[in-house]
Amino acid sequence: MREKWSSRSAFILASIGSAVGLGNAWRFPGLAAKYGGGAFLFVYLIAMLIIGVPLLMMEISVARYTRQGAPGSMRAMNKKVEGIGWLAVSNGIGISIYYAAVFAWVILMFFMSYKFMGMTGDTEAASSLWATTIKTTGTTSGFTTVSWPVVGCLIVAWILCYVCIRNGTTTVGKVVKFTVSLPVICLLIMAVRGLMMPNAMTGFAKLFIPDWSALADSNLWVDAIGQVFYSLSTSMAIMFAYGSFLNKESNIVVDTMIIAFSDLFISILAGIVMFTTMAGVGMLDNMSASGIATAFIIYPQAIVKISGSSVFNMIFAFIFYFCLITLAIDSLFSIIEGISTAVSDKFKLDKKKTTLTICIIEGVLSLIYVTGAGLAVLDIVDYFINSYTLIITGILEMIAAGWFFKTTKILDELNRNTKGFKMPSWWFLPSIKFISPVVLIGLFVWNLVNLFKGGGIYGAADGYSLKANIIFGWLTIVLILCSGLIVKLIVKIKSGSGYKEDDRTWEDFK
User: Fold this and answer.
1) What are the tens digits of pLDDT across the range 409-437?
2) Cα–Cα separations (whole angstroms), residue 215 to 33, 38, 39
3) Cβ proximity of 398 and 162 under 8 Å
4) Nearest to 200 by CA among 286, 280, 281
5) What is the pTM of this model?
6) Which of 25, 74, 254, 261 could form a disulfide with 270 if both were Cys (CB 3.0 to 4.6 A apart)?
7) pLDDT in tens, 445-483
8) 54 Rama class: left (phi>0) / alpha (psi -120 to 50) / beta
């Protein structure tokens, strides 16, 4: 018996929790600061409606119809494209392994927030607190150096992840009531404080008043589209898994719009916090599009300058990092849920045991990120997955749905229970078949050009060696792209002991 969401709100909150992650809190404000504030918001909204929403709807609706994870859903459309689903699963594996390490850093900073009490006005001490504790070398050397406090926090991160999803939708539905509402409450508290600070309106204006000249910068369009694509949790098997637990009576069109606009709202709220706070402490020009730098280096400098009260600054630090913890936890466990659903569906395994096994294996692999070289390795792996395999997966998903399957069947499933607002064919079909694939191919080519333009290998300017990029970058891409073949090999081996694949097609799921 397929597990189901206990209620419509459980699905919506879980999906919002998955979509709203650390990137909303730190990357979105940084990009808005870099590209003319309101101008970036304008392009982001367009990209969300044209690309993000249709892709999100497609993944959820196909999964609801087939009641399968990403590989099973793709296979139901066409047996030849099952491998695309395993690409999505593999993206999730690569991302969750390093995301757990970032989550561990956030937990570490939460526990160390008491130290801000003794740093009032000392921006140098605040900015070096994180880097000193994690013992980063900033290079791909230093694998023998380990930060034991981070190891402890990493174990806590994986335990929390497993506890949240150990019973699938039952525990997830309960957890997301808190992990989605608490960060909003924290952001509202920080936004109120930010708006009360001197010069706050300068930051507020910079966020919302468009600098239309920024639209001429092609990088704005590339980064806005990329942020939408990554933010909505597409192409990493999550929304396939969540969609597969939906009741047949659910209204996907309305629910997807709620999820997408909630994601946008929380991003803007995080932007208000960042812009007003940084303006209030005179650091508005210091904002960075780098999430790691913002959360662990730049914002700590702002925290120690928020007021002359060391106790208040410490409390503010606790609230900030607690907010990041609640944003990170549901993003991490949603990725693991997508992986676990796909694997247990394919090989008919016990879901709870599969989830535990995945958490243990990935937990061991994530130890590489607690070494002195961890930050550099994360930088390389994150770049290659987000710039290439995620986009390749999105392109292939669109092509499979738009050209190797009758897309109107997906649209019919999408609009099955809509009484008022329906997803119109003039919006959905052109996006899936033409606009999104073309735009994402353009984004992919753009990233490749930038990759080879700077000396032939990513990170050359940052000092990463060719060897490091091959091992942690290109090898990661090869493993992800070969994931479908690896699964086929496993299936072939298991077939000798009586295992049979699920050969149902789209029509068989009626």
Assistant:
1) 999 999 998 878 899 999 999 999 999 99
2) 14, 10, 7
3) no
4) 280
5) 0.95
6) 25
7) 988 887 777 654 444 445 678 888 889 999 999 999 999
8) alpha
Gap between the Cα atoms of 310 and 285, Å rounded: 25
| 448 CB neighbour count, 10 Å cutoff | 12
Secondary element (H or E) of residue 226? helix 218-231
Q: For 8-372+388-450+476-509, CATH number?
A: 1.20.1740.10
| Dist. CA 409–CA 435, nearest whole Å | 19
**The predicted structure's pLDDT at residue 463:** 63
User: Over the range 248-286, which residues count as b (16 or more CB within 10 Å of their CB) and which as e?
Assistant: eebbbbbbbbebbebbbebbbbbbbbbbbbbbbbebbeb
Domain boundaries, the chain: 8-372+388-450+476-509
The owner of tokens 């753009």 is 446
Q: In whole angstroms, give the CA distance from residue 185 to residue 454.
A: 43
Lowest mean pLDDT among 104-113, 303-312, 463-472: 463-472
CA distance 319 to 501: 49
- Amino acid (1-letter code) at residue 137: T
- Side-chain half-sphere exposure of 297, counting CA atoms within 13 A: 13
Q: Confirm if 210 and 37 have CB atoms less than 8 A apart.
A: yes
Closest C-alpha among 195, 242, 231 to residue 62:
242
- CB count within 10 Å of CB 80 equals 11
On the question of pLDDT at 26 being above 60, the answer is yes
| 275 CB-near residues (< 8 Å, 6+ apart) | 29, 32, 33, 194, 203, 204, 206, 207, 284, 287
Owner of token pair 């930010």: 194
- Please give the pLDDT value at position 510: 73
DSSP secondary structure letter of residue 210: B
**Mean pLDDT (whole number) for 24-47:** 92
- Closest to 43 (Cα-Cα) out of 291, 286, 228: 228
Residue with tokens 């980064």: 223
In percent, how much of the chain has pLDDT > 90?
A: 79
Listing DSSP states for 257-290 in one string gives HHHHHHHHHHHHHHHHHHHHHHHHTT-GGG--S-
